Amino acid sequence: MKTESGRPLSFSACGERLKAPEITRLMATALASPELLSLAAGFTDNETLPVEAVREVVDKLLSRSDAAGYLQYGTNQGRLPLREWLARRVSDQDRLPKEQAIAAEQVMITNGSQQALALATQVLCDPGDIVFVENPTYFVYLDVLRGVGADVRDLPRDAENRIDAEAFGQILDAMDSAERRRVKAIYLLGYFSNPASTTLTEKEKTDLAAVLREREMWVPVLEDAAYRELYFEEASEERSILGLDTFHDFPRLYLGTLTKPFATGLKVGFACCTDADWLQRMLYLKGQHDFGTAHFQQAILEEVLESGRYEPQLKLLRKTYFDKMRTLHEALLEAGLRELGWKWEVPEGGLYLWLEGPRGLDTGVESEFCRRGVENGVLYVPGDLCMGENREKNFVRLSFAALSQEQLREAGRRFAKTAREFTQ
Predict the structure, then answer these.
(1) What residue ranges define each of the domains in the chain, with the CATH number in brackets?
(2) Could you tell me the pLDDT band of residue 14, with boundaries at 50, 70 and 90?
């Protein structure tokens, strides 16, 4: 690449690997076409954002005699009262006994859980190192992995579409010792996942731990729980890797957020880490990035949590997203999508429907199906963007969070219209 002066500009190996995510073109298409109904963006519902609650909290904080402190720098690890609250919350969710409870010292506050993912990966992985992920998985994390030059491998699935621990063991056994040493992390999507809206069972997790334990591979395990609290009717009883004894000897990182379940624009996430050295190195790197997540945003959320404003917002979001999910689901049914050979499960939480099209259909970014969908006024996330090794082309992620009920009904009709045009 050349600079404006015409002289060549030399990037690092990391800089050379970086490129615009494949979904960027889709987002640009959406912005350029106001009439387009986007089922692609994972935005939250604008009408439910807690404007009044945040206004009350900000007024309260700024009326205090020590208000200037909220506008000052904070610590790199995050506000202690906020970390204490989050540690208690996660410990309670995982039913941890007092002696095993997460401590505030094990928690760091980040700019959304996405930053925690990036920090964790950057301090673990060199180019060529192996990270095992589910298939499908969170497509933005795939960009993080590619950015560090990681070798992304799929965790195998069984006939019931669950993680196949036995097959995973066979994959590990086929590796030589040098390749095994390159396995640096396992990435799991714990609850109501993005994109598939599925929840891992405790058995899937414990069987995975047993396979690694049998081979004395004490690999760091990351569990992304960003959607754990966005269930529709019943919270999942499945414990995370923090609450399962089989993971006791493993370095573990549990990732959560306060953006999706409260207000996305505040961009405050968190991570609980069981390995002190790993946590410290992430904090060193975070210090190089920003020297701490915005102090004022942390203070706002701390007051939201301690004042009891968090639970009412969660209750509102759960009902809102359940109603929206049903609307899109029913719109697709009424438009005859199942009769066209499409399959999907009705989720119990999260923000997405994960659709499987007829075998042989190409719904990828560059496909005629995707182009025709845009022409018909609807946008989606091609499912192959959410896949590591084996990128199947006939899957689609639809987000129901941002559009209104009427827009969702129309978007469902437009998507089904597109599918009908490709039915043989």
Answers:
(1) 13-49+312-421 (3.90.1150.10), 69-306 (3.40.640.10)
(2) confident
